[in-house]
Protein backbone atom coordinates (compact mmCIF):
# COMPACT_ATOMS: atom_id res chain seq x y z
CA UNK A 1 0.00 0.00 0.00
CA UNK A 2 2.81 2.40 0.93
CA UNK A 3 4.61 1.70 -2.35
CA UNK A 4 1.44 2.47 -4.35
CA UNK A 5 0.98 5.75 -2.50
CA UNK A 6 4.64 6.68 -3.04
CA UNK A 7 4.33 5.85 -6.75
CA UNK A 8 1.22 8.05 -7.03
CA UNK A 9 2.92 10.97 -5.28
CA UNK A 10 5.99 10.67 -7.53
CA UNK A 11 3.83 10.45 -10.67
CA UNK A 12 1.91 13.60 -9.73
CA UNK A 13 5.15 15.39 -8.84
CA UNK A 14 6.77 14.42 -12.16
CA UNK A 15 3.69 15.56 -14.10
CA UNK A 16 3.62 18.91 -12.27
CA UNK A 17 7.36 19.48 -12.61
CA UNK A 18 7.27 18.64 -16.33
CA UNK A 19 5.04 21.64 -16.96
CA UNK A 20 6.90 24.83 -17.81
CA UNK A 21 4.78 27.96 -17.30
CA UNK A 22 5.28 30.94 -19.57
CA UNK A 23 4.08 32.62 -22.74
CA UNK A 24 3.33 30.05 -25.46
CA UNK A 25 2.34 32.52 -28.21
CA UNK A 26 5.10 33.01 -30.80
CA UNK A 27 3.57 36.34 -31.87
CA UNK A 28 4.18 37.87 -28.43
CA UNK A 29 7.30 39.82 -27.54
CA UNK A 30 8.08 37.51 -24.61
CA UNK A 31 7.48 34.12 -26.27
CA UNK A 32 9.10 31.25 -24.38
CA UNK A 33 9.65 28.24 -26.69
CA UNK A 34 10.29 26.04 -23.64
CA UNK A 35 6.92 26.92 -22.08
CA UNK A 36 4.33 24.14 -22.11
CA UNK A 37 1.59 25.92 -20.14
CA UNK A 38 0.39 29.41 -21.02
CA UNK A 39 0.28 31.32 -17.74
CA UNK A 40 -1.27 34.48 -19.17
CA UNK A 41 1.96 36.46 -19.13
CA UNK A 42 2.15 37.16 -22.89
CA UNK A 43 3.01 40.74 -23.82
CA UNK A 44 2.22 42.21 -27.22
CA UNK A 45 3.56 45.32 -28.94
CA UNK A 46 1.19 48.24 -29.44
CA UNK A 47 -0.69 48.25 -32.71
CA UNK A 48 -2.69 50.86 -34.55
CA UNK A 49 -5.37 49.83 -37.01
CA UNK A 50 -7.05 52.21 -39.41
CA UNK A 51 -10.19 51.22 -41.29
CA UNK A 52 -9.85 50.99 -45.05
CA UNK A 53 -13.26 52.55 -45.45
CA UNK A 54 -16.05 53.79 -43.24
CA UNK A 55 -19.54 55.15 -43.75
CA UNK A 56 -21.95 57.21 -41.70
CA UNK A 57 -25.01 55.17 -40.86
CA UNK A 58 -28.47 56.61 -41.45
CA UNK A 59 -30.47 58.15 -38.60
CA UNK A 60 -32.84 55.14 -38.71
CA UNK A 61 -30.15 52.96 -37.13
CA UNK A 62 -28.59 55.48 -34.75
CA UNK A 63 -28.82 52.99 -31.86
CA UNK A 64 -27.66 49.95 -33.83
CA UNK A 65 -26.91 47.05 -31.53
CA UNK A 66 -26.84 43.56 -33.07
CA UNK A 67 -25.29 42.97 -36.49
CA UNK A 68 -25.08 40.00 -38.87
CA UNK A 69 -24.30 39.46 -42.53
CA UNK A 70 -26.95 37.50 -44.41
CA UNK A 71 -28.33 37.40 -47.93
CA UNK A 72 -25.63 39.79 -49.18
CA UNK A 73 -26.66 42.51 -46.72
CA UNK A 74 -25.93 43.60 -43.18
CA UNK A 75 -28.88 43.22 -40.79
CA UNK A 76 -29.22 45.19 -37.58
CA UNK A 77 -31.72 46.45 -35.03
CA UNK A 78 -31.77 49.33 -32.60
CA UNK A 79 -31.33 49.18 -28.85
CA UNK A 80 -34.43 51.09 -27.77
CA UNK A 81 -38.15 51.12 -28.45
CA UNK A 82 -37.84 50.43 -32.20
CA UNK A 83 -39.15 46.99 -33.23
CA UNK A 84 -37.84 46.97 -36.79
CA UNK A 85 -35.15 44.87 -38.35
CA UNK A 86 -33.06 46.81 -40.89
CA UNK A 87 -31.20 45.50 -43.94
CA UNK A 88 -28.24 47.69 -44.90
CA UNK A 89 -26.26 47.83 -48.10
CA UNK A 90 -22.89 46.37 -47.13
CA UNK A 91 -20.97 49.03 -49.09
CA UNK A 92 -22.88 52.28 -48.56
CA UNK A 93 -24.59 51.50 -45.24
CA UNK A 94 -27.91 52.72 -46.67
CA UNK A 95 -31.11 51.09 -45.39
CA UNK A 96 -32.47 48.95 -48.23
CA UNK A 97 -35.27 47.23 -46.29
CA UNK A 98 -36.98 47.48 -42.92
CA UNK A 99 -39.32 44.89 -41.49
CA UNK A 100 -41.41 45.43 -38.37
CA UNK A 101 -41.29 42.52 -35.94
CA UNK A 102 -44.96 42.20 -34.92
CA UNK A 103 -46.32 41.55 -31.44
CA UNK A 104 -43.09 42.29 -29.56
CA UNK A 105 -41.69 45.07 -27.39
CA UNK A 106 -38.08 46.18 -27.56
CA UNK A 107 -37.25 46.33 -23.86
CA UNK A 108 -33.48 46.10 -24.40
CA UNK A 109 -32.49 44.37 -27.65
CA UNK A 110 -28.78 43.66 -27.48
CA UNK A 111 -27.81 41.06 -30.06
CA UNK A 112 -28.66 39.48 -33.39
CA UNK A 113 -27.60 35.96 -34.43
CA UNK A 114 -28.65 33.44 -37.05
CA UNK A 115 -28.80 29.85 -38.17
CA UNK A 116 -29.81 28.48 -41.57
CA UNK A 117 -33.51 29.24 -41.22
CA UNK A 118 -33.95 31.85 -38.47
CA UNK A 119 -32.71 35.12 -37.05
CA UNK A 120 -32.51 35.46 -33.26
CA UNK A 121 -32.96 38.82 -31.53
CA UNK A 122 -31.75 38.90 -27.93
CA UNK A 123 -34.07 40.99 -25.76
CA UNK A 124 -32.00 40.32 -22.68
CA UNK A 125 -30.13 43.51 -21.80
CA UNK A 126 -30.29 43.97 -18.04
CA UNK A 127 -27.89 46.75 -17.14
CA UNK A 128 -30.55 49.24 -16.00
CA UNK A 129 -31.44 47.72 -12.64
CA UNK A 130 -30.34 44.09 -12.98
CA UNK A 131 -33.78 42.80 -12.03
CA UNK A 132 -35.46 41.89 -15.32
CA UNK A 133 -37.59 38.79 -15.14
CA UNK A 134 -38.84 38.94 -18.74
CA UNK A 135 -35.69 37.91 -20.62
CA UNK A 136 -36.31 36.51 -24.08
CA UNK A 137 -34.96 35.65 -27.48
CA UNK A 138 -37.18 36.41 -30.44
CA UNK A 139 -36.86 33.76 -33.16
CA UNK A 140 -37.72 35.18 -36.61
CA UNK A 141 -38.20 33.13 -39.77
CA UNK A 142 -35.72 34.24 -42.44
CA UNK A 143 -38.22 33.33 -45.14
CA UNK A 144 -40.77 35.69 -43.59
CA UNK A 145 -38.23 38.53 -43.44
CA UNK A 146 -37.53 38.13 -47.16
CA UNK A 147 -41.29 38.26 -47.78
CA UNK A 148 -41.51 41.50 -45.76
CA UNK A 149 -43.88 40.15 -43.08
CA UNK A 150 -41.91 38.70 -40.16
CA UNK A 151 -43.27 35.72 -38.24
CA UNK A 152 -41.87 35.00 -34.80
CA UNK A 153 -41.64 32.66 -31.86
CA UNK A 154 -40.49 33.69 -28.40
CA UNK A 155 -37.97 31.81 -26.28
CA UNK A 156 -38.34 32.93 -22.66
CA UNK A 157 -35.56 32.15 -20.22
CA UNK A 158 -34.24 32.84 -16.73
CA UNK A 159 -30.89 32.41 -15.02
CA UNK A 160 -31.12 29.44 -12.66
CA UNK A 161 -28.77 31.15 -10.18
CA UNK A 162 -30.56 34.53 -10.16
CA UNK A 163 -32.91 34.38 -7.21
CA UNK A 164 -32.88 38.01 -6.06
CA UNK A 165 -34.76 40.45 -8.29
CA UNK A 166 -34.26 43.53 -6.13
CA UNK A 167 -33.23 46.53 -8.22
CA UNK A 168 -29.46 46.95 -7.99
CA UNK A 169 -28.98 50.16 -9.97
CA UNK A 170 -27.17 50.59 -13.26
CA UNK A 171 -24.33 48.25 -14.18
CA UNK A 172 -24.45 46.47 -10.84
CA UNK A 173 -25.49 42.91 -11.64
CA UNK A 174 -23.99 39.65 -12.89
CA UNK A 175 -27.06 39.00 -15.06
CA UNK A 176 -26.62 41.45 -17.94
CA UNK A 177 -26.55 39.48 -21.18
CA UNK A 178 -24.94 41.35 -24.06
CA UNK A 179 -24.15 38.71 -26.69
CA UNK A 180 -25.13 35.30 -28.02
CA UNK A 181 -24.06 32.68 -30.52
CA UNK A 182 -26.42 30.21 -32.19
CA UNK A 183 -24.80 26.88 -33.03
CA UNK A 184 -26.59 23.73 -34.17
CA UNK A 185 -29.22 23.06 -31.50
CA UNK A 186 -27.89 25.45 -28.86
CA UNK A 187 -27.89 29.15 -28.04
CA UNK A 188 -24.91 30.37 -26.00
CA UNK A 189 -25.39 33.53 -23.95
CA UNK A 190 -22.58 35.82 -22.78
CA UNK A 191 -23.13 38.08 -19.79
CA UNK A 192 -21.32 41.14 -18.55
CA UNK A 193 -20.87 40.27 -14.92
CA UNK A 194 -20.49 43.75 -13.50
CA UNK A 195 -20.01 42.57 -9.90
CA UNK A 196 -17.77 39.49 -10.24
CA UNK A 197 -15.93 40.87 -13.31
CA UNK A 198 -16.40 37.67 -15.31
CA UNK A 199 -18.47 36.55 -18.25
Give descriptors for this structure.
four-stranded antiparallel sheet; Neuraminidase; 12 strands; 12% helix; mainly beta; 2 domains; 34% strand; 199 residues
Termini separation comes to 45 Å
Structural class: mainly beta
At the fold tier of CATH, the topology name of the largest domain is Neuraminidase
Major β-sheet, in short? 4 strands, antiparallel
Q: What value does the average pLDDT take?
A: 91
Helix content estimate: 10-25%
Number of self-contained structural domains = 2
Instruction: Walk across the major sheet and give the strand order.
Output: 3-4-5-6
Question: What Rg is obtained from the alpha carbons, in whole angstroms?
Answer: 24 Å
Strand content: 25-35%
Number of strands: 12
Going by CATH, what is the homologous superfamily of the largest domain?
A: TolB, C-terminal domain
Please tell me about this protein's structure:
- This protein is mainly beta and about 200 residues long.
- It is built from 2 helices and 12 strands; from the N terminus they run H-E-E-E-E-E-E-E-E-E-H-E-E-E.
- Strand 4 and strand 5 form a beta hairpin.
- The mean pLDDT is about 90.
Amino acid sequence: MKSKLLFLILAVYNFESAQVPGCTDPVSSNYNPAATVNNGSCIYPSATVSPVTSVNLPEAVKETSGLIKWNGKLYTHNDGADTKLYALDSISGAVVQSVTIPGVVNKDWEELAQDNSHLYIGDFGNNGNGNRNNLKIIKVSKESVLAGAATTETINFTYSNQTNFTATGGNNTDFDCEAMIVSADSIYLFTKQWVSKKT
